[in-house]
Amino acid sequence: MGGLWSISRQTIIQCLRTRAVVVFLLLLAVMLAAMPFALTGDGTLAGRARTFLTYSTSLTATALSVLTVFLTVSAVSEDVRTRTIFSVAVKPVGRWQYILGRWLGVMTLNVLLLVLASMGIYCLATYLRTGALTEAINARDQAAVETEVFTARRRLSPVPKNIDTQVLQRLEELRRTGRYDEAMVGFAARFGDDQAETELYNEIRKQVVQSVQSVQPGAALHWRFNGVDIAGRDYHSTGQVVSVNPSARAMRISASNDVIGRLVFGGPMCVNDVEAWVQQSGKGSIDVSFQAEEFTSPSIASVQAGDTVTLTVEPTIQITYKASAATYPPDGMLRSAWLVSNPSGETAILERNDPVRQPATLTVPARVVGRAVEINKWIQLRANQIARQENMSMDQARAQASRQRPPSVEKAPPGVLTWATDVRYFNQPNAITGDVTSVTILDEDISVLFRVGSFEANFLRGMLMTIIQLAYVAALGMLAGSFLVFPVGCLLVFSLLPFSMFRQYLTESVATYPGVDMQWYIWPGRVLVHNLSTLLPDLEAMSPGRWLVDGMNIPWWSVAAAAIGTFAMRTMLIMLFTCLIFRSRELARVQV
Amino acid sequence: MDAGEHYIETVKLTKVFRDFWLRERVTAVSELDLQVGAGEVFGLLGPNGSGKSTALKMILGLLFPTKGRVAVFGRRPTDVRSKARIGFLPEESYLYPFLDARETLDYYGRLFHQPRRQRMRRIDMLLEMVGLKHAAFRRVGEYSKGMQRRIGLAQALINDPDLLILDEPTSGMDPIGTRDFKDLIITLARRGKTVLLASHLLADVEEVCDRVCVLYGGRQRATGDIHDLLAQQDRTQIVTNRLDESTMDKLHSLLAEAGCDFQQITTPRDKLESLFLRIVEEAQAKRLTTSGVQDGGKLAEFLRSGQDVPETGRAVIEQLVHSAKPAQVQPAPPQPIAEPTTQQPAREVLQELTPGPDAPPCAGNKAPDKSAHASGEKRQHQADRSVIDDLLVQDGDGKGT
């Protein structure tokens, strides 16, 4: 193994002494350093942080990938071209050791550079996170950057709705009205007799899906999310009391961004294990208020300015959604009310006014505060709708709404927690004009998110994914360099990489659709794209930027899947091929 | 390995180069049968394009034979156990230009899995030997061609190889380097090392080789002991002090009486190589500065003795090592190791003994030295190049009287 390490060590020295590499790295460093100042995103703190994380991680991955291709292809091909391989190949080193040593050298350098770049990105992102470069930051900005960017959240999609009955009903309706045969003729003309029935069914299913994802004014959409596992995710920290206001039963506590970022404005938290309510959170401090009983409890009553208190923040859940409207509202905003409840009977209600077709995020305490007043709010809201729709008196409507309490609000049996969360969207009239419109929220446009880890650990996993990507690219470069000259080798790798980087897009672009005739000359391309897409890994899916930008957790199983699928299988297979090719190559070959 | 066992053996070794379409274009080597035994200095001779380098590359596993078989130490050339005992100097020094001399040797030393201490000691010795100690931290890319050859030689010797394979070893070297290089080969041969060298510089080959193989057009034209090949059995050469006219007349009449055909009388003159070496040595003695190669040539201790030992134990170990060498490479009595300081007196004596204009070109004033060291009494026969000249069209002026 000594020879292998010697070769990899020598490769690192070679790379670091190549002027082009140094210039390349300096450029990367300058660009990374300039990014936080040059990129402002949408102007908000979170937007700025998102933009920086997206561009910095993708720039680093791309730059290192390009560098890796050049270094690996040249590592072998240049040794053969300049014949320095003669002096190495006659030493007691197996050819596989030479190939593996070269690859290891480039990868060691990659790891080193990625660690440096990651440290740079992390430091710059942390600097951005403090808001030092953003002029006006409000509490919402601060909370957004902490809860939506510098976090690691798991995303849950809603449980698919069972629409089979509705589809069958529509089919029955078609048959009953005598339009079924007419529709079949149309579909047979488009898709052929064999496919006509299936396609008709699919079309009806699509219509039903669309209809259940749209809501008329005053009505509600409902989704259920399973697996909102927030148990044991309380965050514990400490803060220093800045001031105490006994008359308002309030305190101002200076706390870290980690604490502030986890808080829900108006939501609960614990100070010295006593429940308090967050009234306001600003840069570096929070204002909390207590109920009379809690404020006089011994652990709070004795607190004075300057004391250190323990802070416990309950986990929160977030709902992100994107709504479209049948009629575009004059101010571009859609007013809505949201009811979030869990099987243990706790409910939160929020009123929102969010822009059309823009992603919006709601944050609620994960326990979804189960106070009577919240239930009453829901009943009042529902009663208003019923009164409007059914032309009832408010008393009657309230009575009916009370009977219609959503099933999830009912208490789950003791000891049984399904971690299910029900989310309801109530379509409200526009806040200014009072106009009403039909609103559509597709299932893929709504999800529940909750924090499952820290940004730092997530960032680390992201970098691991990048290392796996680079290992694969390096192996591809070694393969090309083992039998091709430098320019041709680079060309080959850069021709193959798109199949890995835009795999999904390419696969979709050559997909066949029933009823659509494919020209004969399309087939070779389709076969090529299809097979290469299967052989090569999906590097786009492994790109950490798309996870980090939304503060999405990169699960360990994703890293493991990449490590097995891309590294252990594809990369090692390519390396094996490379060793076999190089072993059978005549290094002093003269082409005549 | 037994003395009789072959370090290198090729059987019907053939190499055909093909073009991109796999059509046969050039037969570089054809049915080459070689056996190089332990302790031999074997020369592959031939004009440019005769297949010398191709043959060497097949022996080293850098090319694969089209037909035939090659074995090095009884194994495949690509076997790492074989390669651990080989030192190779290619026709040009293909080194990493971004490494300095010390790093270069360190890298190659590491490939032989040498312990750090041994590696460092050998690097110091080799740098001193090739005269590059002062340039040890300059990048190899900045070296002159000759300096690169020297560092290339040093890397070939880092493992104290049992088999040294040299492709055009003296190309690009100055006369001092060439001289030192030939001394090195002679010394290694005395230690029982095997050397295979390919060259078209006939003087170099003649001076150091025991056996040669002459290639032309990829085919083996002549193989055998160099003295058998070169000896002119029907001529005699006498070397003496300058003779006055009367003595010359007597000699003429004596030879006429004996029925000898008197062919040529000349006055010996100094050789250009001798003149050059003397000038450089004088400059070095005055410590004139140079950015190029400095006084080297002092053979690395581990190459002399085969051990990385301190100075004190050298004599004892050298004695032991010498006594263990195969008989055929130890024909001459023990001599001082070839190094400029200790060898100078011997060199001067040898210069006097050397027949000036009649010696083979470039043989230099050390030829008899080699004759004494490496080839024994066979070298006392008058040198001629009839066989080689016939094949390689050399100048015939150098024939002895």
Question: Could you describe the 3D structure shown?
Answer:
The complex is a heterodimer of chains A (592) and B (401). Chain A has 4 domains: 2-151 and 454-584, no CATH class; 164-212, no CATH class; 235-314, Elongation Factor Tu (Ef-tu), domain 3 (Beta Barrel), CATH 2.40.30; 324-439, no CATH class. Helices cover 53% and strands 17% of the residues of chain A. Chain A is built from 21 helices and 17 strands. Chain A has helices at 2-16, 19-38, 45-81, 84-89, 95-129, 139-149, 164-176, 180-191, 193-212, 257-262, 292-295, 298-301, 372-390, 394-403, 455-483, 486-501, 503-509, 522-535, 539-542, 545-548, 556-583; strands at 152-156, 214-215, 220-225, 235-245, 250-254, 268-271, 274-282, 285-289, 308-313, 316-321, 324-325, 333-341, 347-355, 360-365, 421-427, 439-440, 446-453. In chain A, the strands form 4 sheets. A 6-stranded antiparallel beta barrel of chain A has the order 4-5-8-7-6-9. Chain A has a 4-stranded antiparallel β-sheet with strand order 1-17-10-14. In chain A, strands 3-15-12-13 form a 4-stranded antiparallel β-sheet. Chain A starts with a helix and ends in a 9-residue tail after the last helix. The model of chain A is unreliable at 369-374 and 406-418 (pLDDT under 50). Chain B is an alpha/beta fold and 401 residues long. Chain B has helices spanning 52-60, 80-83, 101-111, 116-129, 145-157, 175-190, 202-208, 226-230, 245-257, 272-285, 301-305, 314-323, 340-353, 367-375, 386-392; strands at residues 6-18, 24-37, 41-45, 67-72, 86-89, 163-167, 194-199, 211-216, 219-225. In chain B, strand 1 (6-18) and strand 2 form a beta hairpin. Chain B starts with 5 loop residues before the first strand and ends in a 9-residue tail after the last helix. Chain A binds chain B through residues 2-3, 6-7, 9-10, 13-14, 17-18, 82-95, 586-592, and chain B through 17-20, 25-26, 28, 57, 60-64, 78, 80-81, 83-84, 86, 88, 90, 92, 94-96, 98-99, 103, 107-108, 110-113, 152, 155.
